[in-house]
Design a protein that fits this description.
alpha+beta, Cytochrome p450, four-stranded mixed β-sheet, 21 helices, 9 strands, about 50% helix, oxidoreductase activity, acting on paired donors, with incorporation or reduction of molecular oxygen, reduced flavin or flavoprotein as one donor, and incorporation of one atom of oxygen, oxidoreductase, heme binding, membrane
């Protein structure tokens, strides 16, 4: 009998927690949005559209046409505000009010329930770790032209050699492009973090990269059941298959980084010589070992989460953008030809394109901007406001989960006219054939304001050098005996292309000269 009573009270408590919005206390009139069902909020409407095969960001785009570019949703017990066009997105990204990340659900799980790392931390922890990371990486070449150029070119040369071997070994020069750039993209940042590069044939690394790829496909901002009902994180931590997969993923990744940290600690070299980011961080851990308060930002757990942040940035965002770039290139031979003509005209054929060439290659730059717009590898991400915000007659309560839809900003008919057409020329001034900075500014792939991506300079250099160098050396075409490549992306926190093959033909270098 006693357990029946406990069960009744527990169920009542759970329903009450689910029924009431858990993350905000409304202090005024809320933004308009669709009808909210008791307990479920707007989950029924979202589920209905999802069953039709629509991606979440497409559903949000359609809803915004009815409720406005700033609208509200109740994702279960979580109150959300959706920011949906270029102006709304720019306002949020550049606002100090929306400086925080929204932290709940799996974000807390990945960081041991604490505000760790740089991607999803807030407040003093975020400020300190961001400053430390930028300063330390800069000491090892990050952001310095000569050092950065050399690091990229070393990895680029290795990858082109790998491409040459794949072409030689394959039938009809057909190359499988999925994950082709993953290891190289990671190596550029990892050489600064750990002082070494991974082999493309490293089995352990391939397993970790695949784990990372799988988990980002299973997660999307604002879709997790734990986001809808955060109380379930404490009640049933492995509530869904995704939850189990996520837990297994974190165990594997944290284990890999922990082993690396312990190996370096046991070597002891870092105490006298700091060779890379890990050595510097280990020294900081030792220097702060006496601080047992929550204000100690230099701990083993902090490193594990920080390393995971770097690993994610290295393996997913840059590599996925490059995959999309060559997918769109082979599907648009006219664009490929114009990029190659510009490369041949500007770049010394005896060497690789330099990031200094970017300013003299507007069409190549415009093409990469169009790739970032068309691909939108991070279609949705979250922010949170640190104080109430008045929007006309409405109030957005402090602590709201703000969903920033880069997809909507990148596919707005009002902003782009023909958003579903891949057209690099939209970024060029017709009269001067130079980049139109006003149009370029609409692409916010790296964010704005104080939360702008710290690796923006390195990422842009990577994209340009890899893209221009490969098109200087090869031509990409559709593989005739394979399915036509699809531009419909694999959904996830970070989107990537579906697997595709390409015919990769070495260009006639003598003709280029």
């Amino acid at each position: 009998m006693i357990w029946e009573i406990v069960l009744v009270f527990f169920t009542a408590w759970l329903i009450r927690r689910a029924f009431f919005v858990h993350n905000v206390k409304p202090t005024g009139k809320l933004l308009p949005g669709p009808y909210k069902y008791p307990i479920l909020g707007n989950l029924p409407q979202l589920a209905k559209e999802s069953k039709k095969g629509k991606k979440p960001y497409v559903v949000l785009r359609e809803l915004s046409k009815k409720y406005g570019h700033r609208m509200s949703l109740h994702f279960g017990a979580t109150y959300q505000v959706i920011f949906d066009d270029v102006d709304a997105v720019r306002d949020v990204l550049s606002s100090d009010i929306w400086i925080d990340r929204y932290v709940d659900g799996w974000i807390l799980e990945r960081s041991f329930g604490k505000p760790l790392g740089v991607f999803f931390a807030n407040g003093e922890s975020w400020k300190e770790l961001r400053r430390f990371s930028i300063r330390t990486l800069r000491d090892f070449g990050f952001g310095k032209f000569n050092s950065q150029e050399a690091i990229i070119e070393e990895e680029l040369t290795r990858l082109m050699s790998r491409m040459d071997n794949l072409i030689t070994d394959s039938k009809d020069s057909v190359v499988y492009m999925k994950k082709f750039f993953s290891v190289s993209a990671l190596n550029i940042i990892w050489s600064l973090i750990a002082g070494y590069r991974f082999s493309h044939d490293d089995v352990k690394l391939q397993q970790l990269v695949q784990l990372m790829s799988d988990i980002v496909q299973k997660l999307a901002v604002g879709e997790d059941i734990i986001t809808a009902y955060p109380v379930l994180r404490h009640v049933v931590p492995r509530f869904t298959q995704t939850g189990k997969d996520r837990s297994d993923f974190l165990t594997a990744m944290h284990g890999f980084f922990k082993e690396l940290l312990e190996t370096r600690r046991a070597e002891g070299v870092y105490k006298n010589e700091q060779r890379d980011f890990i050595d510097v961080f280990l020294l900081e851990i030792d220097n702060h070992a006496h601080d047992k308060t929550e204000n100690n930002f230099y701990t083993d757990q902090q490193f594990l989460v920080l390393a995971l942040d770097f690993f994610l940035a290295g393996t997913e965002t840059t590599s996925s953008t490059l995959e999309f770039a060559f997918l769109y290139t082979l599907l648009n031979p006219r664009v490929q030809k114009k990029v190659q003509e510009e490369i041949d005209r500007i770049v010394d054929p005896s060497g690789l394109p330099s990031t200094l060439d970017r300013t003299r290659m507007p069409y190549t730059e415009a093409t990469l901007l169009e790739v970032q717009r068309f691909a939108t590898v991070v279609p949705l991400f979250s922010r949170s406001n640190i104080q109430d915000q008045q929007v006309g007659e409405y109030v957005i309560p402090k602590g709201t989960m703000g969903i920033v839809s880069l997809y909507s900003a990148n596919y707005s008919e009002e902003s782009w006219g023909d958003p579903f057409t891949f057209r690099p020329e939209r970024f060029l001034n017709e009269k001067t054939n130079t980049l139109d900075q006003d149009v370029c500014g609409k692409v916010m792939a790296f964010g704005l304001g104080k939360r702008i991506c710290a690796g923006e300079v390195l990422a842009k250099a990577n994209l340009f050098k890899f893209y221009a160098s490969f098109l200087q050396r090869y031509t990409f075409e559709e593989a005739p005996n394979h399915p036509k490549p699809s531009t419909d992306p694999l959904l996830g926190t970070v989107q990537s292309p579906r697997p595709f093959y390409a015919v990769v033909k070495p260009r006639n270098r003598e003709a280029v000269k």
